[in-house]
Amino acid sequence: MYAEAGHVRLKPGARGWIVDYARPQWSGLLVGQPLSEAELRVGRVHGLCGMAHRIALTRAAEGGAPIAPERAAARELLLRVEQVEAMARRAALEFTTALRLPPAPGMAAPVLKAAGRARAALGLSSALGPLAPAATLGSAFADLREAFAQAVECCPKLPRDRLRVFRPSLVMLVTQAWAAPAKLLGELTTAIAELVPAVGAAAAEPELVEGRGRGIAATHRGLLTYDVTVVSGRVERAGSTTPTDLRFGGEGTARHILADLDRQVVAEGSLTIAMCALDPCVPWSVEEHVDA
C-alpha cells in the first residue's frame, strides 16, 4: 500500500459501507519550480507510478504540442515498464494477501530486475531528458517480457466460491482484476513489437508552452491526469486526478459498489478481495462502530 495514494475508511452504512476517502495534495511542492525540477519532485513523491506522474505533468506542460515520434515511443515504453513492475508486485503481494496466502516477493523479483535493465537500456531517466537508447534495447525488453510471462504463470488463482457474496457488477470487476496480468502481458508484447523499433537517439527536445495544459498517462490502475499552468518556464499551478480519485471520490463507482456490499463479507474475508479489485494500492481500514 502507498500513503501517497490516499486513504479509504469504510464505515457501516444501511446495508453496506460508506466511503470516506482523502488524498494528500502535493501541488505546493511544484508551484514556483522550473518544470524540470517539478517533474523530478513529483516522481520522488509518488513511489507508486512515479514515471506516470512525471510524464503526465510534462505532457500537460507541453500543451498537446506534437513531439518527436522517437520520444513518444520511449515514453510509452517507460510507462509499460512501470505498469509491469506494479502488476508483478500486485500479483505477488496484494493478490496473495487477498486470498490469505503467504506473500510471494520472489515471484516479482525477476520482473523487477528485468524492468531495471529495460529502463537503463532506454537511457531516458526523465520525461524531458535526452534519449540515448542502447543497442541492447530489443534484448532487454525481450527479457522483461519473458520474466513477466513467468510471473503471470505463477499468479495465484481466484477461487470462484469466494465470489458468492458479491453482486454481478463486483464479480465482473474482481474477475477483470485477476485477469489483468495476462492482459498486460499481451499489451506488453504488442508494445515491444510496435515501439522498440520506433525509438531513436536523435529525437528533438520537446517544446514547452506558456499557459495551461492537460496531460494524461496510463498506469496499471487506470488513467492519470494533470492540469498545469506554466508561466515563464515555472509551474504556477498544478493539480492531478488519479485513478483512485475516480473510483473513491465524489460519485465514484467504488462508492456505489461498496454501499451495496453486505457487511458480512468482512467476516468471510471477501472484503479484502473486493478492495484489491477496486484499487490494490490505496491503504484502507474499517470502522466497526460509528458514534450515534
Topology:
Layout: E1 7-12, E2 17-22, H1 35-45, H2 50-62, H3 69-98, H4 105-122, H5 137-153, H6 168-195, E3 211-219, E4 222-231, E5 234-241, H7 243-248, H8 253-259, H9 265-268, H10 270-278, E6 284-286
Helix pairs in contact: 1-2, 2-3, 3-4, 3-5, 3-6, 3-10, 4-5, 5-6, 6-10
- Distance separating the two termini: 31 Å
By secondary-structure content and strand pairing, the structural class works out as: alpha+beta
Strand order of the largest sheet: 2-1-6
Strand content: 5-15%
Helical coverage, percent range: 40-55%
Structure characterization notes:
By secondary structure, this protein is of the alpha+beta class. It has one domain (3-199, 212-286): Orthogonal Bundle (Cytochrome-c3 Hydrogenase, chain B). 49% of the residues lie in helices and 14% in strands. It has helices at 35-45, 50-62, 69-98, 105-122, 137-153, 168-195, 243-248, 253-259, 265-268, 270-278; strands spanning 7-12, 17-22, 211-219, 222-231, 234-241, 284-286. A three-stranded mixed β-sheet has the order 2-1-6. It has a three-stranded antiparallel β-sheet with strand order 3-4-5. Strand 1 (7-12) and strand 2 (17-22) form a beta hairpin. Helix 1 (35-45) packs antiparallel against helix 2, helix 3 (69-98) packs antiparallel against helix 4 (105-122) and helix 5 runs antiparallel to helix 6. The model has no long low-confidence stretch (mean pLDDT 84).
